[in-house]
Design a protein that fits this description.
By secondary structure, the protein is of the alpha+beta class. The protein is built from 11 helices and 24 strands. The strands form 6 sheets. Strands 4-3-8-11-12-1-13 form a 7-stranded mixed sheet. Strands 7-6-5-2-9-10 form a 6-stranded antiparallel sheet, with no helix packed on it. A hairpin with a 2-residue loop joins strand 6 and strand 7. The chain starts with 44 loop residues before the first strand and ends with a strand.
Length: 439
Amino acid sequence: MLLPSRTLLAGATLVLAATLLPGGARPAAAGAVPADAARDDGGRLVRIALAVGVDAPRVAATGAWRLADAAGRPVARAADGEGWTIERSGTRLRAVGPDGPTAWRDGMLVAQPIGLGAFLTYGPRRYRGELRLHAAEGGVTVVNALPVEEYLRGVVPLELNAFAPAEAAALEAQAVAARSYTYSRLPEFLPRAQAEARASHPFDLRATVADQVYGGADAERPASDRAVRATSGLVLRFGGMVVSAPYYSACGGSTAASGEAFGGEGQEYLRPVSDRIPGTDRHWCDPAPRFRWTRSWEGDDLQGVMERYLRRYASGDAARAAGAPVGTVRGLVVQGHSASGRVASLAVSTDGGRYVVRSNEIRYVLRSVGGEILPSTYFSVDAAVDADGRVSRLTLRGNGNGHGVGMCQWGAIGRARAGHDFRSILRTYYPGTTVEFAE
């Protein structure tokens, strides 16, 4: 699942990497430490890609730490705060420290903290668990392996900025949704064929909006930690299966069916849900900064955006005419709406032909001049045409922010402030699901 643009959310392409092994250099701590040592609380591990195919990543720690190979055999030991650079040559890796490099090794290298309270660091952030370094096309892939509950501590506060006591139920609902999304991507919760294919990948999720935004230990907050603990192990199930639970910033009045945004038949538990407050003309997500929004383009700006993005996402004969110019924009017409009222299809007429853009891809075509995607597909179109028949100004007036499928985060905040608990919030946005323990 892609989680397109989100505001309250900060929310996978997978790279195959060679399976790796042993090494040697500066004396390491005695004893072998298995590569799954992050499982120190008995929790299920998740592997998060912090970077894919980067050149010479540098790993350090807030205390003493060591490098091991995939079998847990010692490779090197680093002093407090000492940084080591990981180099790649083909499928081999080595670590370079203050006293020189280790031997080249055909295998994953694993960085592990020594002692309680120490964190590994990569870039500006601290991480719990361990860091696994894999050879990948173009460089090194850096993966943080840690228990799911520890991972969620670095996800929930970035995906939902709601720390007031009255908003605790929204954070708890977010924790369950994020945990469900995570578990639905672990091999043991996938159908056998998918699980076997996933076994060849070095990670389960990315640390970006391609999956869920993850900031490591530095992102943790007391309120979100409480939400993770209060819901520990709880996930959403539908028909006995742990479900992927998408979410986004604000629905603008109604959530969307999954097929509206992502195509396909969709899921029964991801269907349109009204966010209207009963007995009023208001909505639970009214306070969202983009509950209502307007975006406008002058003619030249619109032309520039279309030339840059239209052919990439559109269908139709004009879009298939490789190398041909897009042509002057002559009109934009909404061709149909989805069940939730969002734009299902937008036709763009130019001198080069007729282009059709559908569902969530509309957001990637109608970008701002700066490249920001459209907040949502819940909009109306006002196009001004000059005497030459050219669109001289386009104005969209819309509601909501995000793809609209699943939990409306601002709606969850509004419901929490009104006294709803996390279970009722989840039942609303994922109808037909039940909250159960993952085990």
